[in-house]
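Hi P.,

Sorry for the delay on this. The queue was packed all week, but I finally got your sequence through. Input first:
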Amino acid sequence: MGSDWTYLCVNRDMDSISVVNPVSGAVLHELKPYSASDVAFEFVEAKKLQPAWDQLGARARAKIAAKYADLVIQNQERLMDQLQLETGKSRSHAFEEITGGVAAISYYAKVSPGLLRRKKVRAGVPLMLSAYVEPAPVGVVGIITPWNYPLALTLMDVLPALLAGNAVVQKADNQTSKTVLALRDLAVQAGIPEGIWRVVYGDPAEVGNAVTDNADYVAFTGSTPTGKLVAERAAKRLIGYSLELGGKNPMIVMPGADLEKAAEIAIGSAFGNAGQLCVSIERLYVPNHAIKEFEQVLKRRVESLTLGTSNEFKFDLGALTSKTQVERVDGFIQRAVAEGARVVTGGKPATEIGPTFYPPTVLADLPMGAEILHKEVFGPVIALVRYNSLDEAVELANATEFGLNAAIVGDPKAALKLASRLMAGSVNINEGYRATMASMAAPMGGMKQSGMGRRSGPGGLLRFTETRTIGVANRLPIGLPNRAKDFKKMAPLMTMLAKVMGKI
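Then the structure:
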């Protein structure tokens, strides 16, 4: 997802963490950090409460979740205000978080009872045996969420874990912890027992490691290097894990595509949350014959975007979340220029608006080996690349270690054929990421170095469960053989059954 444990632990001393507003630099609040032993205690207490929550039953938990969705909607203005204070994002992108989060709650409230019910499966010996399969909660789930989408990603991960009958200990990013705590408080109001969902924060490595070391399952969203460390610690304990990691997402503009529409899709796909989004488009592949015209169309549309901060739907883009993030983005751009890239528009911090604003930037004429074509920027930057054939476009799109998201603009039928050739966990046609992200019934996750496992869809809940199989020997005059004489008598019958059951 681009964020790292080492990110945004600002002005920390031994006693407190100062969280600042990205736009003004003013201190919003102080946090008292959790220690590793504090985190371990939270897991112990959560484990005590989890059995009763599980025994409440899936339908009862689903009713609480439905009430929770209503409360989130009722409090959306307050939640968006808090979210903007901590992240600096625009009102539009804050609203997108609300809608995504509510969609996740509503989906899992509807489907969780069916997903969690006991199901009868084909038994090994009909009549003599019956077999059932049921999901069982893992216990206490550790969830590590980033700073860029604290509301949406919290609800997409925490709620299915809770609905599966688990308790949750969530490591919130320090920068956005108050947003997460506001969500937790609303959940308690809805009827989720206090103590079933616990929130911790503090030194990123210490608290993150403590969550992984005490959880029965861990779900992590963040950078690929940190995700590998999580996987290593989880593997040593033989616990399950899911990882949603970095991306370097391509968009292919097909020959014959409407260039005006393609450019509008591109800006929505590249600059959501000022590009601080794991699935945002960072590479844009355009037919060689159309690249000059497309560049001008894209430049005009990008330069029409507005930057600023407001609690109204007034600006297209908000701020980046820290000065560190500004330096990161600017560093990528300056190194790209040094490698031969040309800045079409943008390319310098918008300090006249505020210290953490960066204008949407378009780069062109990049050499194929340029760093910015292979490493995740996580900011409002898109690189234009020309191609001569669709085969070449697919080859270039797949030529990174990542495989999180991709997009295609063009004729839907032709794009559908092309989609299966892209090595990405999600492919959007005539959209950048919202067509797949908004589809809560469909799984979301990455291939290659972009992660393991999936959120959303049935698997987004079932990952937080273990499978329990129940077999029943039915009371019949004849039963399964135990002794040699019994096997001799029943062997012909059992052989016949094996043949019949093996037929397709």
